[in-house]
Amino acid sequence: MTEQLVVHRYEQRDDTGLSWPRIVGIAFVIALHLAAFMMLLIPAVAPKAAAEKERNIMVTLVDAPPPPQAPVVDIPDPRPTDIVTPPSPPSPPQPPSTIEASVDISSKNMNPPRYPPAAFRAGIQGEVILIIDVDANGNVTNVSVEKSSRNRDLDRAAMEAARKWSFRSAESGGKKVAGRVRVPVNFALN
């Protein structure tokens, strides 16, 4: 048995010129891919949200209550038969320095605290009691929170507004002196 060997011969072309239809086809495919890639890079644009209307909020500022008075306790004189040896009670804490300045109501009304939008949307209400240091000219030198509303945004809004207020400074011996004032700021939804 003999095997037959098949040999294929290929003719080699001497065509070294450019194939324009092939170049145009490749260029078209590249351009198509670039266009698809650019479409992926364009961010999707969401429709504009409707502008939120400005809401008017009523903030009621309440004048500071008078400092509480200690109740009067009537203690009868001890009898000789009473043996009383109670331990001495600790001395009560010293009250804060005197509150001498007073708020200029027109300044407070012109610069009311701005209700924080997040607290308003969440329906948060509260009262902040501020201690404000005032110089002899009635300008605010320091603001601190005596009693928090338990909401940081409400406390900050009250402090920011208080820094813009002016006060009637306290008088001592006919001269204006620096002092302190306690101001409650109430944030309520109406």
Write up this protein.
The protein has 190 residues and is an alpha+beta fold. It has a domain at 59-64 and 97-187: TonB (TolA/TonB C-terminal domain, 2-Layer Sandwich), CATH 3.30.2420.10. It has helices spanning 20-41, 105-110, 117-122, 152-162, and strands at residues 59-61, 102-103, 126-134, 140-147, 167-168, 170-172, 175-177, 179-187. Strands 1-8-3-4 form a four-stranded antiparallel sheet, with helices on one face. It has a two-stranded antiparallel ribbon with strand order 2-5.
Radius of gyration: 41 Å
- What distance lies between the first and last C-alpha atoms, to the nearest angstrom? 111 Å
CATH class of the domain at 59-64 and 97-187: Alpha Beta
Strand share of the residues? 15-25%
CATH topology (level 3) name of the domain at 59-64 and 97-187: TolA/TonB C-terminal domain
Number of helices: 4
Percent of residues in helices: 10-25%
Helix and strand run: HEEHHEEHEEEE
Query: Low-confidence parts, pLDDT < 50 over ≥5 residues?
Result: none
Q: Shape, please?
A: elongated
Give a quick set of tags describing it.
24% helix, alpha+beta, two-stranded antiparallel sheet, TolA/TonB C-terminal domain, single chain
SSE layout and pairings?
Blueprint: H1 20-41, E1 59-61, E2 102-103, H2 105-110, H3 117-122, E3 126-134, E4 140-147, H4 152-162, E5 167-168, E6 170-172, E7 175-177, E8 179-187
Antiparallel strand pairs: 1-8, 2-5, 3-4, 3-8, 6-7
